[in-house]
Amino acid sequence: MPSRLRRLALLTGATLLAATGCTSGAQVDEPRGSGQEAPRLAPSRAADPDAPNVVLITSDDQTEVELRWMPKTRRLIGRAGVRFDDMVAPHPNCCPARAQILSGQYAHNNGVRTNSPPWGGHQGFDPENALPVWLQRAGYATGFVGKYMHGYDDRDGIEPGWDRWRPIIGVLSNYRNFLQYDDGELVRFGPEDYYTDTVAQQSREMVRQFSRAKKPFFLWSSFIAPHGTCEGYTKKDCSGPPPAADRHADILGDVPLPSLESPAFNEDDVSDKPRASRRGTKVDPAAQQELFTQRIRALAALDDAVAGIVAELKERDQLDDTVLMFTSDNGYLFGEHRLVGKNVPYEPAVKVPLVMRGPGIPAGERRAQTVAMIDLAPTIAELAGATAAREMDGVSILPYARADEPQGDRALLLQAGSPGKVKARAWKWRSVRTDRYTLTRWKVPRFWELYDREADPAQLDNVYDDDRYAGVREALEPFLLKSLADCRGEACRAAVPDLPEPAPTAADADQ
Questions:
Q1: Does residue 206 register a pLDDT over 50?
Q2: Which of 143, 287, 136 lies closest to 205, judged by CA?
Q3: Which residue of 134, 140, 150, 284 shows the fewest CB atoms closer than 10 Å?
C-alpha cells in the first residue's frame, strides 16, 4: 500500500535520483521557454455548455504496430471512432514529446530539445503558458496523473493550470516502488503496487470527481508502458524489459517480434547509414524477442486501464459527451538498421498509434492524413473553445477526424536535440518528412540521408547521392534549412515545394 511521507524526509533522496536520464531530476536556475514575449492569456470564463470532456491517454515508446496487442483499446476507441494511419512523433523522445503535447509547438519554439538541461527537460519549458492553463481559463476542470516531464520534482510545486495534480517523480520508469507527488503530498508506492494499475485507478477516481461538477473536464492519463525499466537492470538508459502485471506474466509468449520480418532488421549493408549504424554490430534477435514479449505483456495492463476509464465514463453518463484520444510519445526500433531505441529519424521511431472517438466523430473509419504530436494541443483547444496564448505550429485535426477533409502533401520537421554548448547548434539531427520523402541532416559528423519511402518503405537505400534524385534533394535541402529550421506558427505549415519525379534509370528507359 502507498505510504505518505514528509517532504523533508525525501528531499535528499529525490535529488539523488537525478543521477540518470530516467529520473525526474531537480530544478536548476535556467530561463524557461524559448524567449517569447510574455503570454497574453484570455480572461477566465465559464465553459461552453456544449463543450465536451476530453480524455487524453498516452503510452510511452509504443510503436504503431504494437497497438495490435491492445484489443480493448482498438474496440472501445478505434472502432468506436477513427484511427489515423500516419500519426507522427516529430521529436521521438520522452520529454520533448510531452512539451509538444502541452504547447502545440516544435522544440525550437517550446524550449525542450532534450530530456535534460541545458536545452531541455522541465527546466526549459514555461508551464504558465500551456494547454491546461488555457483550458482552465475556458472553464474546464483539469487533471493529470502519471509520467510528466524529466526535470520536474516536488520542489517545483503544483504546475499551473491543473486542478488535480498527481505526477510520478524520481525514477520515471519504475513499474513498482515509485514515488508520486499527489496534489502537494509525497506518496511512496511499494513492490505490491503496479504503476499501470495505480494510474488507471487514479484516473477513474478523477473521472468520478469531475463528473459531479457542473463543467467539462480535461484528463491526461500518462502511462509508462511499454517503456523499459531501470529496476534490476544495470544500464542507465532504463531499457530493461518491462515487468508485466502479475496477471499477465505468462501471456503472449508465442507472439513473434514483427521487426524480425523487416528487411531493415540487422541490415546487412549499412555503409550508407550514419555513424551509429555503421559502428554498431548486429543485435541479438533473442534479446529483442524477449524485450518485445515483455512489452506487449505490459501493454495488456494498459489495455485494461483504457477499458476501465471508458467504463467509468459510461457509468457516470459522460461517455457520449467525451472525446477520447489514445497515442504514444514516440515509437521504437528493435534492431532495424542495427539500432535499438528511439530518437532517430526512421519510421519505427516516429510513427505512433492514434485512435480517437467522441461526439461528431464517425465510428469505424480510418484516416490517411498526416497528423502529428504538435496537433494535439490545437485540437484540444478547439474542442474546448479555449484560446491559446502561444503561436502554435500544429493544427487541429478535427476536420480530418469528423469529415475526412482532404489534405495536400504535408511537411513535418523531425528533430532531436543534443546537449551542445551553443544553442543554435545543439541538434543531433534535423529532418523534413513529406508524404513520400525523408531528408535528414546529421550534425556531428555531418552526414545526409534521403529516403524515398514510396519505393523503399524500410528505408534501406540512402539515395542522397543518387543522381536520379538530384532534383528532390535540391528542393528539399533549402526547404529544411531555410523554411522549417527556424519556423514559427504558420511558417511551419509551409507548402512542400514541387518535387520532380526521380529520373528514370537506363533500364526504365529501355522498357
A1: yes
A2: 143
A3: 284
CA–CA dist 461, 273 (Å, integer): 9
Distances (CA, A) of 111 to 31, 55, 122, 362, 417: 9, 26, 9, 36, 11
Cα-flanking dihedrals φ and ψ of residue 494, to 5°? -60, 145
Length of the chain: 511
Are 347 and 433 spatial neighbours (Cβ–Cβ below 8 Å)?
no
pLDDT for the residue 511: 58
- Closest to 153 (Cα-Cα) out of 334, 38, 17: 17
Per-residue model confidence as pLDDT tens digits over 243-290: 999 999 999 999 999 999 999 999 999 999 999 899 889 999 999 999
**How far does Cα 197 stand from its chain's mean position?**
21
Q: What distance lies between CA 436 and its chain's CA centroid?
A: 22
> What percentage of the chain exceeds 90 in pLDDT?
84
Question: How far is residue 327's CA from residue 310's CA, in Å, rounded to a whole number?
Answer: 15
Cell numbers 498516452 correspond to 58
Q: Are strands 447-452 and 437-442 parallel, antiparallel or unpaired?
A: antiparallel
Give dist(CA 276, CA 492) in Å, integer: 29
* pTM value > 0.70: yes
What is the residue-averaged pLDDT of the chain?
91
Structure confidence by residue, pLDDT tens digits, 317-342: 999 999 999 999 999 999 999 999 99
Residue carrying the nine cell digits 477513474 = 204
> What single letter denotes the amino acid at residue 429?
W
Hey, is 273 helix, strand or coil? coil
| 37-48 pLDDT tens trace | 455 677 677 878
CA dist 386 and 131 (Å) reads 9
Q: Which residues contact residue 183 at a Cβ distance below 8 angstroms, ignoring those fewer than 6 apart?
A: 158, 164, 165, 166
Supply the angle between the helices 285-315 and 195-211 in degrees, to the nearest 10.
20
